[in-house]
Write a structure and sequence with these properties.
Helices cover 32% and strands 23% of the residues. The protein has 140 residues and is of the alpha+beta class.
């Protein structure tokens, strides 16, 4: 799809589970995102029984939908208990990690800035948001 951005969110499965389901519900609750969230089966490497991550994929037009995705992800992860961590990957393979531990303590001004930075990064900017960890830039 020309002009569309494919965003993949990798949510690790821990003992309690449910993080991917919870994030998907938050995303689906947003009118601009709801019909664009897919749960996918992650690729399983040879010799492994299954994946330890759940995969959510969104195909979005640039602009407003990416802004809403940024705000929703930041808000969702701030409300998680424990040290929830997700990886977000753009269609060019660039990845970043966002953890609840790093985001939870941020004040409103920094959160607003982080949301704006994440939105720019999702739209293709090479600058990574300041309060996130650099993801492993390998694909696969």
């Amino acid at each position: 799809m020309v002009g569309m951005a494919t965003i993949t969110v990798l949510v690790p499965v821990d003992g309690a589970g449910g993080d991917a389901h919870s994030l998907r519900a938050w995303l689906a609750a947003e009118e601009e995102l709801g019909g664009h969230v897919r749960t996918e089966e992650p690729a399983v490497s040879s010799g492994y029984l299954g994946s330890l991550v759940e995969v959510l994929t969104l195909v979005l037009a640039p602009g407003g939908a990416l802004t809403i995705l940024s705000a929703t992800v930041i808000t969702w992860i701030r409300h998680r208990t424990g040290n929830t961590r997700i990886t977000i990957q753009r269609d060019d393979g660039a990845k970043i990690d966002i953890s609840a531990q790093r985001v939870r303590s941020l004040d409103a001004t920094v959160l607003s800035s982080l949301t704006s930075e994440l939105n720019k990064w999702l739209a293709g900017s090479p600058e990574r948001p300041s309060a996130v960890e650099q993801g492993d830039d390998t694909t696969g």
